[in-house]
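Everyone, carefully examine this protein record:
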Amino acid sequence: QVQLVESGGGLVQPGGSLRLSCKAPRYISSTFGGSSMGWYRQAPGKQRESVATITSSGRPSYADSVAGRFTISRDISKKMLYLQMNSLKPEDTAVYFCNIQKPSGNADWGQGTQVTVSS
């Protein structure tokens, strides 16, 4: 069963913006709110890397490569995780995955959404 559903990827020119969304329809709100979450990406030929994370208390952290350009946020009532990406660069091109680390220790991954930054 699919636990996380991502959307929002696409093709954008350098300098443009995209907003990724990750929906967790099967989560109960208390589990969602008590989880730490994050966005990861994997470019062709490279390992998956952390882009942005947010703790269960709402504290965000970012990879140096995206700090100041990307913003992670969540809406617990809607069970949604977001990644606002501004000033996109060609090197941001990758498949982006959302991840939720539940309080139980189990984790779920989204199916991935392609982001391509190209002129």
Observations:
- The chain has a mean pLDDT of 96.
- The CA atoms of residues 6 and 22 lie 4 Å apart.
- Helices lie at 29-33.
